[in-house]
Amino acid sequence: TMTVLCEGYDPEREQFYGRSGAESPGIDGYLYFDGTDAVVPGGFYAVTITAADDGELIGIGEGAPIEYSQ
Questions:
Q1: Cα dist from 7 to 20, 67, whole Å
Q2: Is the dihedral of CA 39, 41, 44, 45 positive or negative?
Q3: For position 70, what pLDDT does the model report?
Q4: How distant is the alpha carbon of residue 54 from its chain centre?
Q5: What is the rounded CA–CA span in Å between residue 29 and residue 62?
Q6: Which partner for 30 in 17, 22, 53, 57 could form a disulfide, CB atoms 3.0-4.6 Å apart?
């Protein structure tokens, strides 16, 4: 399970996308995940990784936004 910042929704893939603290914007790929209607860009979510596809991670969001602290 990783903490992921949701950056948006990809209608082509029908999944939300974002990145964890391990991915650099513009350099690394996205982490794509399924979620509920509660997912909004800018929120942090617990995501369980279920697969990898050509450098992209794929997972399932675990519900409501979480508080993020370093």
A1: 11, 16
A2: positive
A3: 59
A4: 16
A5: 21
A6: 17
Cα–Cα distance measured from residue 64 to residue 12, given in angstroms and rounded to the nearest whole number: 23
Q: Is residue 40 predicted with pLDDT exceeding 80?
A: yes
pLDDT, residue 29, reads 85
DSSP 7: E
Burial class of residue 67 in the structure, from the number of CB atoms within 10 Å of its CB (0-12 exposed, 13-18 middle, 19+ buried): exposed
Amino acid at residue number 61: G
